[in-house]
Automatic annotation (TrEMBL):
Pathway: Cofactor biosynthesis; coenzyme A biosynthesis. The keyword Iron-sulfur does not apply. The lineage of its organism: Archaea, Methanobacteriati, Methanobacteriota, Stenosarchaea group, Halobacteria. Residues 3-150 form the Ketopantoate reductase N-terminal domain. Keywords: Coenzyme A biosynthesis, NADP, Oxidoreductase. One of its GO terms (cellular component) is cytoplasm. It comes from Halarchaeum grantii. It holds the Pfam family ApbA. Catalyzes the NADPH-dependent reduction of ketopantoate into pantoic acid. Residues 184-306 form the Ketopantoate reductase C-terminal domain. It catalyses: (R)-pantoate + NADP(+) = 2-dehydropantoate + NADPH + H(+); (R)-pantoate + NAD(+) = 2-dehydropantoate + NADH + H(+). This is 2-dehydropantoate 2-reductase. Gene3D superfamilies: N-(1-d-carboxylethyl)-l-norvaline Dehydrogenase, domain 2, NAD(P)-binding Rossmann-like Domain.
Length: 314
C-alpha cells in the first residue's frame, strides 16, 4: 500500500515505520528539527516490541508525495483544520483519510474538507513519543489501532470497503501492532475520550503520576466522575455503546502496571507547549452546554488548565 503519515510524531512515525517494515510505501510528513533529522539520518524507533531503524522519505510538502491509498492523520487536534486544507494533493478517487487523533471532532473537520465517504475515524492505544529529533520511543501500551468508516451519528454505518480490508491486512501482518475494525466508530471515539479526559485531566491538574491518583480516594473518585460525565454527553449526542465505558476503563486501569505514567497533556503543560485542552475537556463542556447537561468535573479541569493551555514562548 501507499501510505502518507501526516504528523510523523510518536504515534504516526511508529505505525508508519511498522507498516514500512512490511514493505509498504510509507512517506512521513513532519516539520522542524524532527524533519531535518528524518531526512538526514532516517527514522529510529526504540520500542519495547523491538528496536528498528528505517530510511524513509520525509517531507513537509504533501504535493511532493502525490496520491496515496491511505493518509494517517496524527497531528495535534489544533492542527487538523490546517492539515485538512492540504489533503487534496494526497488523495485519489478511492483514497481514505484515517484520523488517529485525540478528541471526537477531528473527523468532522476532515469530512468537511474531503467528504465524509473518504474519512475513517480511529483511535490508537500506545505510549509513544519523540525522544529526540528523528528518534521515537515506544514505551508500552498494546500498540493497537481501532478504526471504522465515519458517518453521521444517526445514520447506519456504511459497509466496510475493500480499501479498509486491505489496510486491515497490512496492519495485521505488521510486527509490533494490532488492529480492529469497528462499525460503532462514534462509540469508539467517545469511549477513548472518556479515558483520555480522566487520565489527562487528573495527571495535568494534580501534576502527579497515575499511581498517586489511583491510590488517593478523592482523586480516584474524580477520575471516575470525569469519565461518567463524558459518557453522559455522548449519550446526549446520540452515541450508543454495546459496553459500559466507565466500568471497562476503571477495571483496566486498576489492573494496569503504569503507576509512573502521566499523559501527553501533562507533558505539554510542563514543557510550555500548546495543550489539546480544547479538543478534550473543552469539547465535553461545549457539547454538554448544547444539551443542557451539567459536567462539573470537566468544567473544573478545563477552568484550572485553560489559563495555561497556550504555548509558553517565554
Amino acid at each position: 500500500m501507499e501510505i502518507a503519515v501526516y504528523g510523523a510524531g510518536g504515534v504516526g512515525a511508529y505505525y508508519g515505520g511498522r507498516l514500512a517494515q512490511q514493505g509498504h510505501d510509507v512517506t512521513l510528513i513532519a516539520r522542524g528539527d524532527h524533519l531535518d533529522a528524518l531526512q538526514r539520518d532516517g527514522l529510529v524507533v526504540e520500542s519495547v516490541a523491538g528496536d528498528f531503524a528505517l530510511d524513509l522519505p520525509a517531507t513537509d510538502d504533501p504535493e511532493e508525495i502525490g496520491e496515496v491509498d491511505v493518509v494517517l492523520v496524527c497531528v495535534k487536534s489544533f492542527d487538523t483544520e490546517a492539515v485538512a486544507a492540504h489533503l487534496d494533493a494526497l488523495l485519489g478517487e478511492d483514497s481514505a483519510v484515517l484520523s488517529l487523533q485525540n478528541g471526537v471532532e477531528n473527523e468532522e473537520t476532515l469530512a468537511d474538507a474531503v467528504g465524509t465517504n473518504r474519512v475513517w475515524g480511529g483511535v490508537a492505544y500506545i505510549f509513544s513519543t519523540i525522544k529526540e529529533p528523528g528518534v521515537v520511543e515506544h514505551t508500552g501500551g498494546p500498540a493497537k489501532i481501532v478504526f471504522g468508516r465515519y458517518h453521521d451519528v444517526a445514520a447506519e454505518p456504511p459497509a466496510r470497503s475493500s480499501l479498509a480490508d486491505a489496510f486491515l491486512d497490512a496492519c495485521e501482518s505488521a510486527t509490533g501492532m494490532t488492529v480492529d475494525y469497528t462499525e460503532n466508530v462514534h462509540g469508539t471515539l467517545w469511549d477513548k475520550l472518556a479515558l483520555i479526559c480522566a487520565q489527562a485531566g487528573l495527571t495535568a491538574t494534580t501534576r502527579r503520576p497515575f499511581g498517586d491518583i489511583r491510590e488517593n480516594e478523592a482523586s480516584w473518585r474524580l477520575y471516575r466522575r470525569v469519565m461518567e460525565e463524558v459518557v453522559s454527553v455522548a449519550h446526549a449526542e446520540g452515541v450508543r455503546f454495546e459496553w459500559d465505558p466507565v466500568s471497562k476503563w476503571l477495571d483496566a486501569m486498576e489492573a494496569m502496571d503504569n503507576e509512573g505514567n502521566y499523559s501527553s497533556l501533562h507533558y505539554d503543560l510542563t514543557h510550555g507547549k500548546r495543550m489539546e485542552l480544547d479538543a478534550l475537556h473543552g469539547s465535553v463542556v461545549r457539547h454538554a452546554r448544547e444539551h443542557g447537561i451539567d459536567v462539573p468535573a470537566n468544567d473544573a479541569v478545563y477552568a484550572i488548565l485553560a489559563p495555561q493551555a497556550a504555548p509558553n514562548d517565554g
